[in-house]
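Figure 6 in text form: structure in, sequence out.
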């Protein structure tokens, strides 16, 4: 299982989410760099570079979700995330 192996390697959901956010910024940066550095290719080449890097973000966010689910099952959520999760569940619990 890939998610278990990633978790065992020390990769957590927060890392995957951060990579997703970074890849969005990187997509914009590669688009601007390609647009300015390669006038021969023009806008079409810059668009291809931006889209190529931009496609990484959903993958990282998907991995983050999968790792988060795994962390919840294994009980290895970080304290702050676990506290938020427990607090939310307690608020949803009907009072008698």
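Output sequence:
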């Amino acid at each position: 299982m890939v998610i278990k192996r990633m978790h065992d390697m020390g990769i957590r959901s927060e890392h995957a989410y951060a990579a997703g956010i970074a890849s969005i910024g990187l997509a914009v940066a590669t688009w601007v760099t390609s647009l300015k550095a390669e006038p021969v290719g023009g806008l079409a080449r810059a668009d291809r570079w931006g889209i190529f890097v931009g496609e990484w973000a959903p993958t990282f966010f998907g991995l983050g979700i999968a790792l988060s689910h795994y962390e919840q099952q294994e009980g290895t959520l970080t304290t702050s995330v676990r506290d938020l999760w427990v607090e939310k569940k307690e608020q949803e619990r009907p009072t008698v």
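Caption detail: DSSP finds five helices and no strands in the chain.
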